[in-house]
Fold this protein.
Amino acid sequence: MLRESFHNHTWRCNHAENTERDYIESAVRGGMTKLGFSDHAPYVFENGYYSGFRMKPEQIQGYFDTLEALKQEYKDKIDIYIGFEAEYYPKFFGKFLKLIADYPVEYLLMGQHFIHNEMDRMDSFHASESVEKLQTYVRQVAEGLSTGKFACLAHPDVLWFTGSKDIYQKEMLIVCEAAKKYNVLLEINLLGVRDGRVYPNPDFWEVAGQVGNTVTIGSDAHRAADVYDPKSYETAMGIVKRFGLNCVNAGEMIKGGHWLG
């Protein structure tokens, strides 16, 4: 059963619904024991650029105030954790870490929705047969994992590559080996299952199985009803069994000791 999920969003990202309490109640009804919130992290860019799919820096305090209060209120029913889902943007990553340093961040997920530094809008989720784009994604993700700040790589197979399977797997081998080297979990993403997206990608998970990566499952909920998602979970577990993956509960990322403030 889906007992733990550490990939869940809030209304602050501008593309999610319901309240934090609604998410928690959904998890409790499903019999979940741990729930992590990892909303799209605030980033401060340059030249006035702002991406509208993440919380604003001025919302950080409210994010923690709300969730810390709910953590106490529900402490006898479920354990609540607070983190962020963030891209690794080399030019701005140091500033991002300074921005969140004074808050009780318990974990970071890497979710590489864009490559380079976002402003050029080179995203990961539109179909492309560009080997250069694939290689850029791989190099940037591997470098981000090497920072030691990320406990989990969310939807590692988000990049939609339409070229050769052999090339794809050769490049993704670098990601899988980096995740294993730096003790970072790989996430099988339930939003991809629910929405019928290009991920989870069996070609990726075949490589992860060969490398021997440790994986977990994340709801990636953008509405309360999707926090506890047993149907998609069963599909994800089918991937685990098919490729002989070592699947652990999401709470293991807290034990990993990556981001501790």
Remarks:
- Residues 221 and 227 are 5 Å apart (CA to CA).
- The mean pLDDT is 95.
